[in-house]
Specification:
With 284 residues, the chain is mainly beta. The protein is 15% helix and 43% strand. It has 2 domains: 158 residues, Schlafen, AAA domain (Methyltransferase, Cobalt-precorrin-4 Transmethylase, Domain 2, 2-Layer Sandwich); 115 residues, Immunoglobulin-like, CATH 2.60.40. The strands form 6 sheets. It has a 5-stranded antiparallel sheet with strand order 15-16-13-18-19, with no helix packed on it. It has a 4-stranded mixed sheet with strand order 1-2-5-4. A 4-stranded antiparallel sheet has the order 11-12-17-14, with no helix packed on it. It is globular, with a radius of gyration of 21 Å.
Length: 284
């Protein structure tokens, strides 16, 4: 589940996207409210990535205002359990963030497309001032078009069925304590968990809060001069096949003894991947 510091960063980002949605409130009192919630979750899950719905943040200003109603993960999953195919389970937490109680729903979109699976339609009146009822219909596929939830079209489904999805994890292979620093050898594991082989793959890793890259292993290029001299290495592969696992040697980093965390901004790209991914992955 997402950490408190990551929640703060998402709130400060003040920008919605395919994997991030803000809501001022999450009413679930009526069937219309529940139908809107199902629509939002399916749209985020169909990103194919881990996505977040943050509750207690104003839609237009992105300012935290706090949640009006508390919920539990069991309650949210009870609403979702018979309305999504394949089934979606979410994680939920409420934390005091920036002086407000904020709710965070984490959705792991591991198997898109997710489809509305109610018998025919589900919904009704919604809470609040709106008098217009809201319904979801069996067989609908919702997606996020940047920051808008809408029904999918054919090209959206084609992308879901034909795209690669790369994931990168890391492993600490060796630590050597020096007089005034530590040298850490970091390796990487690249996996294609998508629906087809990834082509023209590029992995770049930008290291922050390190003293220097002592050594980069075979295959990695030094492209720090292209990133304002921030230590950065890059690797290119022609093809990463479906379910293929690459154990990659990485680099040896020199870090100060008093630095507890090294940040590595990882950019994963393939010609047939739906979008480039940027994630912080390394904690020493």
């Amino acid at each position: 589940m997402i950490s408190e510091s990551e929640i703060i960063e998402l709130i400060k980002k003040a920008e919605e996207g395919p994997t991030l949605d803000y809501k001022e409130n999450l009413p679930l009192a009526t069937d219309g409210d529940k139908a809107e919630f199902v629509k939002d979750v399916i749209a985020l899950a169909n990103s194919g990535e881990t996505a977040h719905l943050i509750v207690g943040v104003e839609d237009s200003t992105w300012k935290p205002v706090g949640i009006k109603t508390s919920h539990k993960a069991e309650q949210l999953n009870e609403i979702l359990k018979d309305k999504c195919d394949p089934r979606i389970s979410v994680e939920y937490l409420e934390k005091n963030i920036l002086g407000y109680k904020i709710g965070v729903i984490e959705i792991a979109g591991k198997n898109p497309p997710y489809i509305v699976s109610v018998p025919a339609k589900f919904g009704g009146p919604v809470s609040g001032e709106s008098k217009k009822p809201f319904y979801i219909h069996r067989g609908t596929v919702f997606i996020r078009n940047y920051n808008i939830n809408e029904g999918a079209c054919r090209v959206d489904l084609d992308q879901m069925y034909s795209s690669a999805d790369l994931q990168l994890t890391h492993e600490i292979k060796e630590r050597k304590v020096k007089d005034d620093s530590i040298e850490v050898n970091v390796g990487f594991i690249l996996t294609n968990v998508g629906r087809m082989a990834a082509t023209f793959v590029r992995v770049s890793i930008q290291f922050n809060n390190i003293m220097r890259v002592v050594k980069r292993d075979a295959g990695w290029q030094d492209i720090g001069h292209l990133r304002n001299n921030v230590p950065t290495i890059q690797l290119d592969e022609n093809v990463v096949h479906l379910d293929e696992i690459f154990h990659l040697d990485g680099a040896t980093l020199q870090v100060s003894k008093d630095i507890k965390q090294v940040e590595a901004l990882v950019s994963l790209y393939a010609a047939n991947m739906r979008r480039k991914k940027d994630v912080y992955v390394i904690t020493l």
